[in-house]
Structures are given as C-alpha cells and as structure tokens.
Design goal:
This protein is α/β, with parallel strands linked by helices. It is built from 29 helices and 24 strands. Bound molecules: adenosine-5'-triphosphate. This is RNA polymerase recycling motor HelD.
C-alpha cells in the first residue's frame, strides 16, 4: 500500500476525487430538495472544501442552483456511481486549439452546466475512445462523422473503493495493462461483470463498430464475447439516447440459466427494460400458442449417447431442416399459399360489379407486398367495404331509376289497361323486392365475398407442407431424392401424430408466421443481440431477420464450441454471404478467462478437431497445470474431490463447478455427493439460478457460457470419445475455469488426455499421494 500511495500526484488526485464527489453530492441535493433546504445543505456540504478545481464559485452555486439540477434518471446514476465516480483519466491536447484537457472517465457523465466543462466523461462518449484505442502520442477520434486530431500525453488508471483512492497507475508504451491482470486474477462471482475500465483494443473495436451495420464475431472461449456484446448494447443506448426505446432491443440467450447469469451486469451498464429471452420462448410468443416442443437437448443427448436408430439419416434430416434449402422449399410453398388468396371472381353487390378480381389480385400480389398475407386480406376487406359505402347511394339510385323508368314506360304506354295495371303492380313489387335485396347485399356482400378466401391457422399450413408427401415432394423434387423425401415426411408424420414439434421446426414456423400472419408490434424489436450464435441454424437466423425485417444484429459465437453443429452454423461465410451481406466480421483470439496452462491444454485438445480456427492466445496469466487424479471407487472419488474442493476454498476460490459429460452423469454425481460428502451441491438445471454458496454440478453442454474459479471434470460412468461432439463438449468444460482445472476419473484416457502432450498436465499416480 505504502508503495502504491507514493505516486507523485497522489495528493492532487485525492483532492480531485474529493471535489468530484462533493460536486456529485451537491448536484444530487440540488436536484432532490427545494431551494431553501438546498442552500442550507450546500453550506454544510461545502464546509472545509477548497473549490480550487472548480471555476464555479460558492456564490454562483448558491445563486444558480438551477444549473445544478438534473433529471431523476441522472440523479439515480450519480448516486449509483458516487462511491467510484471514475476509473481513468486522459490528458489530451487538441490540435486546433492547443488546449490541454484533463478528462476523467467513468460510467456516468457530469458536466458543469455553467462552464460546459466536463467533470466526468462517460466511457461511451466519442472522446473516451482515446482511452481504449489510443497509444500515447498523436491520436485522433471521431465524433458525429468528424475527425479530431490531438496529442495524448497521459493515460492513467485509478482504483477507487468506497470513495477512497487506493491506487494510481500510469500506462505508457512499456507497461502492460496491470489493471487487466489484476481484474483477471480476481474470483468469479457466478455472475458476469462489466469491464469498462479494462476493455482491450480488439474488444473496443467491436463495441464501437458501426452501429448501423450488423456484426458477426467469432471469438475464442473466454475472449469476452458475451461481455462485449452487452457493452455494445450499452454503447448503442448511449449513442442513440434521444431516439432510443428499450422495447426496440432484444437479447437472445441459450437458456434461462444464462439470462440469470448476465442479469446483474445489465443495469450496471445502463441496459434496462429490454427483452431478454430464448429463441424458443420468442417463437412461442410470436405464434401466440404454447406448442409442445420436444426437449431441445434430447437430440443432442441422443447423438452424445449414440442411441439413435438411424444416426446418419437423422443427422442429415436435422441438418436439412436447419438449412437455407429448407427455407427455399418453404418459399415455394408460400408462393402457392399466396396463389390460393388470389380471387377469380369479381366482387358484386347484387347485380352491381363493384371491384374486379383482376384489380384485387393486383392489390394482393403487388400493392400490399409489404404486408403478411392475412393482413393483405384484411386490407382487401376494408377496400371493399369502403367501395360499398361510397357506391351505396348510387347503386340504390340506379336501381330505383331503373324500375321507375320501367314503371313510367308501362304507365304511359298504350294497350290493355288491365294488363298494364298488372304489369305496374308486379313491377312495383319487384322494385321493392330488388331494393330490399340490394340493401341486404350492401350489408352482407363483403363478408360473403371474404368467405371465399382461405382461413387456416399456422399449424394447418405447416402440417400440410411437411406431412403431405405429395405436396412436400412437389417442392422438394429438385433438391432431395425420393428416399430423403420419404424419410423427411415420415419423421414429420410421427411428430405430428404425437402433436409435437422439435427445435428445428421453429425456424420454419416463425418464418411462416411472419409471412402469413405477421408478428405483433411489441415483439417487433429492431436490434438484436444473439449470444452462443454457433448453435443457431442458418434458417433460424434467416427467419429472425425476415420476421423482424431488420438486419441489425450483433451475433457472437465460437465454432469450436458448436456442440449442436449437427444443426448449427459450421461456416460464418454462409451467414455473411447469404443472410447478412452488410455485416462486418470480426474475430477475438485472446482468451481473458483462463490461465496459460489451462488454455494450452484446451488448445491441444482442440487440435484433434482440425478446425480452421486460429489458435486461442491466452492473456499472459500463469497458474497451476491442469491435474488428473485417479478416482478409485465412487466413494473414494467423492472423498478426494471433497478434499480437493475444501483446499480450493482455503486458497480463496469462491465458485467451484463439478462438470459431468451429460445430465445423467450429473444426476449420478449428485447422488454420490449426497451419499459420501458433506459439501452442499446444486445439480444445475436449465431454468434455474445458480446458488452462490454451493458446489455446482453441471453437465458439459449446460456449462457453455458460464465460468467458475475452479472446475473439476469428473467421470463416474461416462467417458469422452475422440469424436467431434465429445471433443467439443470437453473443450467447453475445460475452458470454464478462471484459475484451476482438475480431472477425476479412472484413467486419463476417459478425458482424452492420452491424445494430449503429456507435459501440459500433471497426473497423480495413486490415490494415496497427497492432493496438491
Ligand atoms: N477486457 C477485459 N477485462 C477484464 N476482464 C475481461 C476482459 N475481457 C474479458 N474478460 C473476462 O473474461 C471472462 C470471459 O468473458 P466472457 O464470458 O464474456 O467470454 P466469452 O467469449 O463469452 O466466453 P465463452 O465463449 O467461453 O462463453 C469474463 O470473466 C470476463 O469478465
């Protein structure tokens, strides 16, 4: 501490911090109290403080309390960050004016309204980009399309705790980012945190990339994808503060557990009231019905457990339903559905032709192209109703005139008087009858006409497409062979017989819903963040884009963790070329989460996959090598894991997870823990929150996206095979820890360690050996 306090500017900086906090306090008070109370409070607050930093005198504060007033939203923020108003400073000299500016960067912005001087600059403001982006020396930044040049002479970081200045660090070209190192060596809290003070340049480039363009990020495990995506949202909200409506934004996460995991960081970043959901829930909301869905992980488990009857065919089917070729089939079908909505008969009211079928077809096909099909029909109905309303008088007049003329002719014609009388009386009756008929038709003809249009629900349409061999075969003829068509339809028929849908049906359902009926306004978000996007299918992404009619997506994922690759994305190129052609593509290769030792081991495992992905570079932070323990009996194994975990706790680790390959393995592990250990464990489920003070037992696929101080990968019954899906699951599990990784099993080969370089990890030979 002594050492740290020695920074030559410590006194000055401590004074500045004091001033800032007093200023915040005054602003808060001015905003929250009336004039008189404020004056009293101000006197109290200013006692003993030198306002050297401020250009605003005591008097002007007193007389101009209105200049201090802020909105309640701003006051809320000031209160929140009162304990830590800023985390960094930059000294910047503008090229045009040669004036030096000292800018303090924090999570809130505060200006002296009188002098227009910034007291705290928001980390998302254009000039703050210099802190993240600029080296010392000549720099530039962009604001509202203009470039500003200048000279950066200082970048300084602060550690402030509860209003106390703990540390000051100056960053120059030679020092590495010590603050980053410090923050990475901290413990995990079961929750994602904000990283505004240590955002790295490559990450900053993603956060601040053009907000009017979609972005796709391929990022290694632990490279900060989730974190960065949320910071980008925060940046978006700041940049478009005036036009921004939280209901325009949506985060799509893999499951409820994950939503809970990110929930605390959002308010911290000023991201509030936005829709956070899963793809499944979103589609259910869009179609407005709670369909019965086969458990989305069922197929994954079946692939992992290799207990599918025809695995190759099933893989093909899943892949096909996820592809843009299936979308093509749905598109062909949609064209035909539209065909059934094009009327052949003109629209008549009684004998009057009010609107021709040809004109109606033109409206439906072209004029209302921007609308979903059934909404086009609603429009048509309104058009017809309007026409009837305006033509009504004319039609009645025409008919009246017609009969009156007839009557006139009869009355004034020569001939038999009796016959004429009869004719006139008949004509009069006819006139009354026809007029009545006409009036009735005026009331009912639109509804009658509209009855000729089809009226089916979404499920009818989907079922017709996928279970009717003839119909499906017609659209798929040039894309699939007969055997494939047969397999496809019989699979769908059996699902339909049990009134079930599977995950891969959702893209098509969403797509059809949007095209035929539309999506309700409150679900029509404009800006979407997708995390773990590697598990989305091409069709899913396409359906979302098409349904929401926007390409403003932030898509982050990692193909190396694509455990659903049988249906997920295998190539970002396709996403770029065929779905988001406007998108920029970025990669994050550095991993911030874990130590060099753990990352090197995980990288070695990944080599087995021969993916064309660059090797993940760990940020230099060392720790112990991963270690393998021979497990022995179940009881012995649980005893030594318990022993190991207790040691981890003693070393200061806070969160520990035991990861098993599958859910079944985790259920077994939980049972053994309950039997043989006094540690409290939580067998994590998808829709649960993580309990902070229990050991988490979680399956490898569910652990995706999460992180823990230490991870123990255990095997009591199942082992990882040298196959793609298992390698990816193991890779996911191995990249979860921040600090420590251990394996407990009966042989290193259970975790494929026999494929890895032996010097990357340690092995304990016997159970008797003391656990390190
Ligand atoms: N610049 C940074 N400063 C401090 N911590 C960082 C930084 N970048 C990332 N981290 C930390 O690294 C960890 C991993 O981040 P995150 O979970 O966002 O990565 P990810 O790419 O989504 O990982 P995965 O794909 O494995 O789920 C988090 O603890 C995060 O706080």
């Amino acid at each position: 501490m002594e050492e740290k306090l020695k920074h030559q500017d410590y006194e000055e900086e401590a004074e500045r911090l004091d001033f800032t906090r007093k200023y915040m306090e005054i602003v808060i008070k001015a905003s929250e109290s009336d004039e008189a109370t404020f004056r009293d409070q101000l006197k109290e607050a200013l006692e003993g403080i030198e306002l050297a930093e401020s250009s605003m005198s005591y008097m002007s504060m007193l007389t101009n309390s209105n200049l201090l007033r802020r909105t309640s939203e701003e006051v809320k923020k000031l209160k929140k960050f009162y304990g830590k108003p800023y985390f960094a400073r930059i000294d910047y000299e503008r090229a045009e004016t040669h004036q030096k500016e000292i800018l303090y960067i924090g999570k809130v912005s505060l200006f002296d309204k009188e002098t227009q001087q910034p007291i705290i600059v928001d980390w998302r403001s254009p000039v703050a980009n210099l802190y993240y982006d600029g080296r010392l020396g000549d720099v530039s930044y962009e604001a509202e399309g203009e470039e500003y040049n200048g000279y950066l002479s200082l970048k300084r970081q602060y550690i402030i705790e509860d209003g106390q200045l703990e540390e000051i660090r100056d960053i120059d070209l030679t020092t590495t980012d010590e603050l980053l190192q410090m923050s990475l060596s901290e413990s995990a809290s079961n929750r994602l945190t904000e990283i505004v003070s240590t955002i790295q340049e490559e990450q900053n480039n993603i956060i601040r990339a053009d907000l009017n363009k979609p972005i796709i990020v391929q990022g290694a495990a632990g490279s900060g994808k989730t974190t960065i995506a949320l910071h980008r949202l925060s940046y978006f909200i700041y940049t478009y503060a005036e036009r921004f409506n939280p209901h325009d934004l949506m985060i799509l996460a893999p499951n409820r557990l994950f939503i809970d995991y990110i929930s605390e960081v959002l308010p911290e970043l000023g991201v509030e009231n936005i829709l956070q959901t899963t793809f499944i829930d979103y589609v259910k909301a869009c179609i407005g019905k709670n369909i019965k869905l086969k458990h989305p992980e069922e197929k994954l488990l079946a692939f992992i457990n290799r207990d599918l009857k025809e695995p190759e065919k099933m893989k093909w089917l899943t892949d096909f339903k996820s592809s843009l070729r299936f979308r093509d089939i749905v598109d062909r079908y949609l064209l035909d559905i539209l065909g059934t909505m094009l009327p052949k008969e003109d629209f008549y009211v009684s004998k009057f032709r009010v609107y021709s079928a040809k004109k109606l077809r033109k409206l439906i096909q072209y004029e209302y192209q921007y609308l979903p099909y059934y909404r086009r029909l609603d429009k048509v109905k309104r058009v017809l109703q309007n026409h009837v309303r305006t033509d009504k008088k004319q039609m009645i007049e025409k008919m009246t005139n017609f009969y009156d003329a007839k009557l006139d002719r009869a009355l004034y014609s020569k001939g038999d008087a009796e016959k004429r009388k009869l004719f006139v009386s008949k004509a009069l009756d006819k006139k009354v009858e026809e007029l009545q008929e006409l009036k009735k038709a005026i009331r009912s003809s639109v509804n009658d006409y509209m009855k000729h249009f089809p009226k089916h629900d979404l499920f009818y349409y989907y079922k017709e497409l996928v279970t009717n061999r003839e119909i499906f075969g017609k659209y798929a003829a040039d894309l699939l062979d007969e055997e494939q068509i047969e397999f496809f339809c019989s699979h769908q028929i059996s699902l339909s017989q049990s009134r079930l849908y599977e995950m891969e049906d959702l893209a098509a359902l969403l797509y059809l819903q949007a095209k035929i009926y539309g999506i309700s306004q409150e679900l029509h978000v404009k800006n979407i963040v997708i995390d773990e996007a590697q598990d989305y299918s091409y069709f899913q992404l396409y359906a979302l884009k098409s349904a929401l009619d926007t390409d403003m997506f932030t898509i982050v994922g990692d193909l190396a963790q694509g455990i659903h690759s049988y249906r997920g994305i295998k190539d970002w190129g396709i996403v770029l070329d065929e779905i988001f052609p406007r998108a920029s593509y970025k990669t994050l290769q550095k991993s911030y989460r874990t130590t060099v030792e753990i990352m090197n081991t995980a990288n070695d495992l990944l080599k087995l996959l021969k993916l064309e992905l660059p090797v993940v570079e760990p940020v230099v932070r060392h720790g112990k090598k991963p270690i393998f323990y021979f497990a022995g009996s179940n009881e012995n194994m649980i005893a030594s894991i318990t022993n190991y975990i207790n040691q981890l706790y003693e070393e200061g680790m806070k969160t520990v997870a035991v990861i098993g390959k599958t859910k079944e393995e985790c259920i077994k592990l939980t049972k053994y823990f309950e039997q043989y250990s006094n540690l409290r464990v939580q067998c994590l489920k998808e829709n649960e929150e993580i309990n902070k003070d229990e050991v988490v037992i979680v399956s490898s696929h569910l652990s995706k996206g999460l992180e823990f101080d230490a991870v123990i990968i255990s095997s009591v019954a199942e082992q990882f095979e040298a196959e793609e899906i298992d390698i990816k699951l193991l890779y996911v599990a191995m990249t979860r820890p921040l600090h420590r990784l251990a394996f407990f099993g009966n042989s290193p080969s259970v975790f494929l360690l026999d494929y890895l370089k032996p010097d990357l990890f340690d092995v304990t030979e016997t159970m008797n050996e003391p656990i390190r």
